[in-house]
Amino acid sequence: MSRSLSGRREVCTTLVLGERDDGVSGWICGVDEAGRGPLAGPVYAACVVLGPDHGITGLADSKTLGEARRNRLAAAIRSHSLAWAIGVASVEEIDRLNILQASLLAMQRAVEALPRRPERVLVDGNRGPRLEGVVIPIVGGDRLVPAISAASILAKTARDAEMLVLHRRYPCYGFDRHKGYPTKAHVAALERHGVSLVHRRSFAPVMRVARADAAGGAPERLAHGNGPAEEFARGTDAIV
Q: At the top level of CATH, which class does the domain 14-167 belong to?
């Protein structure tokens, strides 16, 4: 298995995988993604196979849970599920394919990383990835199906952890606070500091800043000492 951070040029594939042998046949896995809406960072997906007696209480849509509770549940899911895996699609893939197709690709990578093929794949939403076997999209599945809820929690916590890594590389954008989502603070930082390697250039707010830079905005920012060259420890190679 390989790991690749967004902002590098290699393609992200499978990140992590866990399995317990409980002798259960006919796996049914839940799948969900995290990170379709942000302006920066990769999109993550997770798949989870829960046994009939998994004993994990409090599973819910990750968006309804606080950070501390999500992290506790993520640890329980990794420990008590029959199997789980996380897949990623990079910023480059998002810009090349579009965010929907990149999300489906991340889901496909997660499911295909399982040690055996699930009998059924239950996916949150109205579309599912291309996979062998039965794929069942379920609108609101992250609220209705425990395995999908578990997948939403793993995807969210894994992506949040990645955004903390990216914050250390690009501190001026505040990824540790908004995780790349288009908050007012993020958009203001983007307009002030310009587009980084981990921003999604196909998204309108990023595209607008990139076009302004191409028209001459970036040199003015750098001349005033507000650009990534002075705020990133990695220097001007962080600017695209």
A: alpha beta
